[in-house]
């Protein structure tokens, strides 16, 4: 029963296009309604899920990305204004006679408004990965803002412990000195279950337990340990290896929310009223990101991705309830608000391009010039070959095609660091986002192009680019890479003339190298035999 109900409701949520955590939240309420109360083992598992979530955030934390003004400035200003406006809104609801809001003190009002300021990392990552937009400018900006919000939450969680840390906490400043030791251990743990065990041990022992021992919040320790390991070459692999454990343990966290009891009618009304803040939250992101010179489409897509309430709001309220700062009823209200926000945000996010196309003229008026350096249209010049996506596949194709086309090849990639790397290596690569419709509308067409290669890592990006090439009637042969047969069929339907399965190509390349090596080895043996004879 405990596993079946969350499973069925999570499947139902995904079938209708919502994140599975909606199913987990509803499952917690359903189990409570069925008389299954206060499951004692859920709490430690839920705590472990939160620790692993923060450890994983630390592993992916790139401090350079947080230094960008649209990230730290956008997150800070947005959270501050959201707290201010939400507090006024909550106080206003209390003044009109709603007793649940009128009973809140100023400190409680600010705390609730603070919890409303977060956007869901789980929801945003899911949406961006499904669309293949994680590495676009708007996707990276949204993720950076989410990380900044998570850091604000960790600061609160640390402060909420309510006691001053031990003087021994100063010794934690020397923790970075142990990074070479942690790196050496990570080098030696391999790639299997020992890697998972290493991650769990690092998050729980020198992370959570050590920080708790000196009077600091364990959550902060997990985040710091992830940050210390973030620069290692296996950090991404470690994060992926812990992904299923983190997701499974977080199920317990969402189930535990339902164990607080079924929401009352007044709590449902309170959640619905506070959900009215979502349009303001999204509009504020849109206004702020355009002020940071993102183009209208980038700002709008990021605002739709961030226009929801967060599981971190639940974590913040859980910590506040634990120290007696908030009534437990507000945790149920927040759970409902997270659910309502996902129900609204999912369809809006899916229709982001349609919404932008309809309101494009008005949205463009919000833009500031010059545009963000990573958000400007490009001029192609007169290349003969165009390669979209300059990762390993794109750069390999570039080098091979150079033997035939010379320097008449142009690569396009949406990441500035990749562009800089290739230009320093002698390749001609420019910054551009092929998944941005404005890119195609502002593209200066070139009659010199004979071949277009779609070498982006996501099928969504290649499929979208092929669709745009067909729409603008690009007169050139188009080739693309794929992983699965159904992807090949979609690309052929869009007019792509040649599709290469990367797995088959890798196998064929391996076989070709083996044959060439064997041929060379056989030739050497024959030559030696001839000399001997």
How many distinct helices? Answer: 25
Percent helix among the residues? 55-70%
Q: How many strands?
A: 6
Specify the structural class. mainly alpha
Low-confidence parts: none
Give the amount of beta strand, in percent.
Answer: under 5%
Any overview of this molecule?
This protein is mainly α and 533 residues long. The chain is 67% helix and 5% strand. The protein has 25 helices and 6 strands. The protein has a 6-stranded parallel β-sheet with strand order 3-2-1-4-5-6, sandwiched between helices. Helix 8 packs antiparallel against helix 9 and helix 17 runs antiparallel to helix 18 (329-350). The longest helix has 31 residues, at 502-532. The termini are far apart. 42% of the residues are buried.
Topology:
Elements: H1 4-15, H2 20-33, H3 42-59, H4 63-66, H5 69-95, H6 99-102, H7 106-116, H8 121-131, H9 137-159, H10 179-188, H11 193-213, H12 218-229, H13 235-258, H14 265-275, H15 278-291, H16 296-306, H17 311-322, H18 329-350, H19 352-364, E1 385-388, H20 392-405, E2 409-413, H21 416-424, E3 429-431, H22 437-441, E4 451-454, H23 459-471, E5 477-482, H24 485-493, E6 498-501, H25 502-532
Parallel strand pairs: 1-2, 1-4, 2-3, 4-5, 5-6
Helix pairs in contact: 1-2, 2-13, 3-11, 3-12, 3-13, 5-7, 5-9, 5-15, 7-17, 8-9, 9-12, 9-16, 9-17, 11-12, 11-13, 14-18, 15-16, 16-19, 17-18
């Amino acid at each position: 029963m405990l596993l079946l109900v969350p499973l069925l409701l999570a499947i139902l949520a995904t079938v209708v296009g919502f994140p599975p955590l909606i199913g987990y939240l509803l499952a917690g309420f359903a189990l409570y309604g069925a008389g299954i109360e206060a499951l004692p083992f859920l709490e430690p598992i839920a705590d472990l899920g939160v620790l692993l979530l923060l450890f994983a955030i630390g592993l992916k934390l790139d401090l350079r990305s947080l230094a960008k003004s649209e990230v730290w400035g956008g997150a800070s200003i947005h959270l501050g204004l959201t707290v201010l406006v939400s507090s006024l809104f909550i106080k206003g609801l209390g003044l009109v006679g709603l007793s649940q809001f009128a009973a809140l003190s100023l400190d409680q009002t600010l705390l609730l408004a603070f919890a409303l300021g977060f956007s869901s990392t789980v929801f945003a990552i899911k949406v961006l990965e499904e669309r293949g937009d994680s590495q676009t400018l708007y996707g990276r900006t949204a993720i950076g803002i989410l990380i900044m919000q998570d850091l604000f939450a960790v600061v609160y969680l640390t402060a909420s412990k309510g006691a001053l840390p031990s003087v021994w906490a100063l010794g934690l400043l020397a923790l970075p000195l142990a990074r070479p030791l942690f790196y050496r251990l990570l080098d030696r743990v391999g790639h299997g279950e020992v890697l998972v065990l290493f991650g769990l041990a690092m998050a729980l022992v020198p992370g959570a337990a050590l920080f708790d021992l000196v009077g600091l919040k364990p959550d902060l320790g997990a985040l710091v340990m992830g940050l210390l390991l973030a620069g290692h070459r296996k950090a991404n692999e470690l994060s992926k290896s812990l992904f299923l454990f983190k997701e499974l343990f977080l199920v317990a966290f969402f189930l535990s929310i339902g164990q607080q009891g079924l929401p009352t009618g007044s709590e449902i009304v309170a959640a619905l009223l506070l959900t009215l803040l979502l349009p303001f939250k999204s509009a504020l992101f849109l206004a702020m990101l355009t002020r940071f010179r993102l183009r209208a489409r980038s700002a709008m897509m990021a605002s739709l991705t961030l226009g929801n309430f967060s599981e971190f709001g639940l974590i913040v309220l859980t910590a506040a309830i634990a120290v007696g700062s908030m009534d437990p009823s507000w945790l149920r209200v927040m759970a409902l608000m997270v659910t309502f926000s996902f129900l609204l945000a999912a369809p809006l996010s899916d229709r982001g391009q349609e919404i932008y196309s309809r309101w494009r003229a008005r949205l463009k008026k919000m833009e500031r010039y010059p545009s963000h350096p990573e958000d400007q249209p490009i001029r192609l010049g007169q290349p003969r070959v165009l390669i979209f996506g300059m990762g390993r596949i794109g750069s390999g194709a570039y080098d091979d095609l150079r033997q035939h086309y010379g320097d008449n090849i142009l690569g396009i990639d949406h990441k500035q660091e990749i562009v800089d790397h290739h230009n320093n290596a002698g390749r001609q690569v420019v910054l551009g986002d092929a998944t941005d419709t404005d890119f195609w509308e502002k593209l200066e067409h070139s009659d010199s192009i004979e071949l277009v290669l779609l070498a982006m890592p996501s099928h969504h990006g290649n499929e979208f680019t092929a669709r745009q090439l067909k729409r603008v009637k690009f007169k050139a042969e188009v080739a693309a890479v794929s992983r699965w047969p159904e992807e090949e069929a979609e690309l052929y339907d869009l007019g792509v003339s040649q599709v290469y399965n990367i797995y088959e190509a890798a196998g064929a390349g391996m076989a070709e190298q083996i044959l060439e090596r064997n041929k060379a080895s056989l030739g050497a043996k024959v030559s030696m035999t001839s000399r001997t004879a």
